[in-house]
Batch of 2 targets.
Target 1
Amino acid sequence: MSYKNISCTKEQNKAIIKLNRPEALNALNRETLSELGSALDEIWNAPEVKVVVITAEGQKAFSVGADLKEASSLDEAGVKELIELGQSVYRKIDDLPKPVLVAINGIALGGGVEMSLAADVRVASETAKVGSPEVNIGLIPGWGGTQRLPRILGKGKAAELIFTGGIIDAKEAERIGMVDRVLSPDEFTSTVNRMASAIAAKPSTNRAELIQVVKSV
Amino acid sequence: MEFKTITYAKESSFLSPEENVAVIKLSRPEVSNALSKDMLSEIDAALEEIRRDEQARVVVLSAEGEKAFCAGVDPEEPNRQEAERCAEQILKKVEEFDKPVIAAVTGEVSGFGVGLALACDMRVAAENAKFQNPAEAARRLAKIVGRPNVADVLFSGRAVEAKEAESVGLVNKVVPTDELLTTVNWTAGKIASSAPLAVRLSKKCVNKSFEVSIAEGNRLELDAILQCARTEDLREGIKAVFEKRSPQFKGK
């Protein structure tokens, strides 16, 4: 299938989804989220696919989160629909019976981070920054961030990140357990590829096993 | 209000001249800030005052002196059971308080003192902090360090020093003792400059996260987002993003 805001390619037993709205720093509008949902369905039903990678092109942005231009034009019913759409697509990432690796190539904020939290394993480029700045615009993380961050980081660290709206660099994200490994930007794409191949060779959705694999590649 | 066993003051932060950081300080250093019934009711009264005070956006819980944060329930209390019951009520109140609470931990922390630190939303500790003999802390600890097995091992009777507390996630951060209050003030200032309703609702959602499924948690988030969507603060926040400036939230 072909998409407008993302690309989804299959190489042997790997599926690679790339967010592809670089002009909007991969902000997540309704169309992008729907396409992501369709790509996940497609992968769900493709028995040859043993691992999924979600990433984006370049070093600048993974995703800056919800598309504020679009979101601020919505009425209450529209907001509800948008929130439920993002939540259901991210639950699909969670529920997909195949390992999902999110490779954070650049800045990941708000909904971009929340997408990564639904995956089984997260790696980030040294130049990446991550954060949940929603409270700084008057919102809360609404696509699962308030639920998955405490589960992943523990309550104290999740509270700090969410209540301060802080943005941290990749090293700090690794220290607090938000990403499982930090990669050099020069070798980012090649290492992520090797990680995906290693996971596909021994597919599992056991987080401890997956972390072992991404650390050993 | 006048307090005898604690001090209560509002402070400004690095980020704003407004006195929006409420600081409660346990002030019985001569008994390692042990929790007497009087002290517990004064903490309760201070929290009620903060709840009503719209200017106060975040609470810092700290202690007088560097030797001890809190040694738990005062052993001099004649009715220990009654005192422990009061202490547990205060812990619960802190945990569910509608403004975030940051613990600034120095020195010895033991028994209900550990529980009190863990009931706060986050903890910054001085290098000399040392956690021991937790009473009712196990349940809270498991949520904070994330791994129940670690919680068991951690409190098998030995003391946990600051560095270890940091590496397992029991405290958010360890800093040199003389930097503790400035570090906490910075974090408090960041929270105080965020949209108050959004902070309050996100605390509610985070608190529920260990009790509900993701799908149920998502419904709580949706409900919170719809409340935020009706605020002036959200409109101001989005406007500020497009105008590339800091937002001015009014709590409306």
Note: Chain B touches chain A through 53 residues (CB under 8 Å).
Target 2
Amino acid sequence: MAINLLDRAGGNVDDQRFTWKELVSKPISKLDDDAFTRVRVILMNGIELDALRLKQMLIRMNREARVEVAKLMRVEQHQATAINWLLSPDHSPLETTIAYEQVAIELTASVAQNESDPYLAQGYRYALLEDFDHLYRYSALLDRLEGKDANNIIQGYTDIVPGRPTLFHHRAPEDDLTEPYGRNAALGSKLNAITLTGGEYQTHDYYMNVGPTFADPLARQLYAEIASVESQHITHYGAMINPEEPPLEKLLLHEAAEVWNYNACFEQETNPRIKALWERFLDYELVHLQVAKDLFEKYERRDAAEVLGDGSLPSSVQFRSHREFVRAVLAEEAEMRKNGTRFVDAAQENTASARYREAMNAAGSPSQAVSAEYFWTPGTEINRNMGLHA
Amino acid sequence: MESTVSMGMNRTGLDMAPVSGDDMVDFARASAQEAPPEVGDSVALHRAYIEEADPNGSVPLPGTVKGMATTGMAKLTGDKPEVFIDKLGERLAFERTGARLYEALILKCAAHQGDMTTEIRAAGTVITQGDGGAAADAGGVDLSVLKRIHDEEEAHFFLVARALTTLGADPTAVTPCADVAGVMAQGLMQTVTDPSTSVPQSLSALLTAELSDNAGWELLVELARQLGHDNMAVEFEAALADERRHLTTVKEWLRSSVLAEAA
């Protein structure tokens, strides 16, 4: 049945409980599950962690909503756990990193194609080419450090070639900003920006945590470099979110984003056990959305329909290979740069970014060093001379 | 024996790529030809870090008066007691972790055999209540033998701890080689404690551990003799004999379980 965000949801947050056994269920198979099952797991963990992040800020700035928000956070903490613990322990941190970049690429490609605002769509395509390059650099590291083929993780859905070289991602802070969507922007535009911001946050935090666990100095440098870029991406996407929205409107929109994303996962999941989890959490989120609508209408004294429109869900994220779209963007837009909030040709790049980049790369570039003369070969570059599939 | 290996929907290889794999390969190669050459020297980067690196730590100073006297005596004879202490620390750490590895394997084997009588006390000692005789066939692994190996690993830990105490060294400290042994064991522990790994897969991890452990004890015996600790050397030789038996046993369990499943 089609979901309408304005429908009143039954159920109670207090009934959304877990046992530790439910939080730690049987993980997915790294070898046998579809790569997009893992993509959805990573995405939804990122969305839930962002839900927690927003709510922690909310209780610091809104007295009336504190109890309801605390209750929501308890459930969301455990939703995030139940989801993230689905990643099986045979994933090395670097293999998980490859999966994170696949999430960034395929999710962003889907969002970029769905986005109705041309400026925001440009913003998605811009950062898409950067995460696309990160996949290539990390694939070189996985091959050369662990002797593993990144395609064993991404399962042929995503190309492994250079994008906009990571070397050029390092910008002056003012050039990371984007223009925010307007108050009356389409609901889909708002949910896109919220989703991408949450995704990038998660990626950044993951790299900041696992980077120091590597022994290899080049790996440590590469994580340091790309974590810095992911921090820029949080700003890039976070700046798309309208800063004039009051906190309870942000809460309402975030809950709508969670409903929207869980629904997409539920629609497209191929693993029946995981599909049941998405369905359960979709039901949970409809209740959370109801709590947010009630808080918004009570304290903001506005109708939730002002934010949610007619209540219909925007088109779902498409969890599939967007190879042709990505290749087209790569061919057309790899040379683009930033100048303030504008996307410009390389010649018009802000000189502050060029100076910043030069300083950061003064003692060498990890992303260049890791991939010198590298091109992806099935079975790793050691297999290149064997000619098996190469 | 329960089957642990089966054909299925493994999606990792290029042959299973649902979207055209050949196109992906061609695009990767063509892109490499078009891309400007990367500038970066991975070798120089690594070399610089290796040259700048500090050791991972030091061998702790003896904490007792007796210890200082003992190690001081060794210094006078021209020996470097810190080398011996470091390697003793490594064995101590390895045996302690080894005991935990065997506990994890015992749990797994018992679960596969439906043996509900095995308990593992927090302190590490494995005991059997009731009918432990059910232990027979998790890939040919005999639980009672497995428990004996575990107990011997634990006994070896105590043996090394006593040796360190005799030298005035602190058996609760982590020496540099002990730290490295812990890093090396991470993969083994991940393998054996994962509920999804089979008994033969876990035995493979234990085989790696036992091969290393055997070489470690051989070195320790030689080191003790060279430094004149003959009593220790005799005790270490007994431990080495145990470890040789462990290696043979684990290797045979692995061999027979794999051959039986392939038949």
Note: Strands of chain B lie at 118-120, 126-128.
